[in-house]
């Protein structure tokens, strides 16, 4: 007998419109469907909750729970190591659709769950900090830390991105009560960075963490920014976590610019004009000599 996923694909076109939308929603992200409530699934598919029940019965399952159990069992057998939503036999169109839908769904869920009160506390802390040092370990987190440092720098704040473990400890020893250690690690279990975070806190610095819920890093932090996304099938830090972290950083920086007021706005405007005129990727760029001449005046 065919597994439930194959049944869903083969019979979807013959179903009534509302049930077809339910099946389409399940196939786009079957693991998320298993974890969703009936209400959440109905909202995502744009149907009523009784339609979810009828769809499950159409495939021989008396209850939604029995249906989801069968789906989970099928996923355990046929699960792909390519992507949590993609099956080995999917077409290019299926792959593109599923990956994009999964990313959009993760960001939509982030919008529902983001702790705005914590965002405001972090922004207030950053606005008052004498120095902000951004700690990271690993390729993805290091990119995030560098992006955060660059954004803070453009707002006129003193910030560093530090991925060397020894330098993190040196930083932690010098931050003091007016400093912030902003630690980025989705995994949240890197021993040396955890030690640096603990040491920074012991010296009176405020520790902000961008990480998953229920990690050691979240427990160490004074101000945890928690990002929860489905586990990636291949990487410890997948694309959806990557995108979610970038979005949180964007929210923080825009809100921080609002807090800092006209001074930050002017600085950002000057930075934009400078890059537009002298940036190597600018159509108006005419070489370093023009910049040298302007400085002489």
Overview features:
alpha/beta; 5-stranded parallel beta sheet; 63% helix; elongated
Give the number of DSSP strands: 5
Which sequence of SSEs, written as H and E, runs from N to C? Answer: HHHHHHHHEHEHEHEHEHHH
Major sheet: arrangement of strands: 2-1-3-4-5
Shape: elongated
Strand content: 5-15%
- Radius of gyration (Å): 24 Å
Most strands sheet: 5 strands, parallel
Task: Round the mean pLDDT to the nearest integer and report it.
Answer: 85
Q: Which structural class do you get from the secondary structure elements?
A: alpha/beta
Describe this structure in words.
It is a single chain. The chain is α/β, with parallel strands linked by helices and 297 residues long. It is 63% helix and 9% strand. The chain has a 5-stranded parallel β-sheet, with helices on both faces. Helix 11 links the parallel strand 3 and strand 4 (206-211). The longest helix has 22 residues, at 92-113. It is elongated, with a radius of gyration of 24 Å. The termini are far apart. The mean pLDDT is 85.
């Amino acid at each position: 007998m065919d597994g439930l996923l194959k049944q869903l694909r083969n019979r979807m076109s013959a179903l009534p419109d509302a049930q077809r939308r339910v099946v389409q929603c399940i196939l786009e992200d079957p693991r998320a469907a298993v974890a969703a409530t009936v209400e959440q699934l109905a909202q995502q598919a744009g149907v009523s909750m009784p339609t979810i029940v009828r769809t499950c019965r159409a495939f021989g399952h008396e209850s939604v729970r029995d249906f989801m159990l069968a789906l989970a069992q099928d996923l355990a057998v046929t699960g792909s190591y390519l992507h949590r939503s993609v099956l080995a036999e999917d077409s290019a169109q299926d792959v593109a659709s599923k990956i994009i839908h999964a990313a959009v769904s993760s960001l939509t869920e982030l919008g529902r769950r983001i702790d705005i009160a914590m965002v405001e506390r972090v922004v207030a802390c950053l606005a008052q900090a004498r120095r902000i040092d951004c700690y990271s370990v690993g390729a993805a987190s290091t990119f995030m830390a560098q992006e955060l440092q660059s954004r803070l720098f453009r707002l006129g704040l003193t910030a560093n991105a530090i991925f060397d473990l020894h330098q993190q400890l040196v930083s932690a020893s010098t931050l003091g009560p007016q400093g912030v250690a902003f630690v980025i690690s989705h995994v949240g279990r890197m021993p040396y960075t955890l030690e640096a975070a603990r040491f920074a806190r012991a010296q009176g610095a405020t520790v902000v963490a961008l990480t998953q819920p229920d990690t050691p890093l979240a427990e160490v932090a004074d101000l945890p920014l928690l990002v929860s996304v489905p586990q990636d099938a291949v990487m410890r830090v997948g694309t959806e976590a990557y995108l979610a972290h970038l979005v949180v950083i964007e929210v923080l920086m825009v809100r921080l610019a609002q807090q800092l007021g006209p001074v930050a706005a002017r600085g950002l405007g000057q930075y934009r004009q400078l890059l537009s005129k002298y940036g190597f990727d600018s159509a108006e760029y005419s070489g370093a000599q023009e910049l040298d001449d302007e400085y002489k005046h």
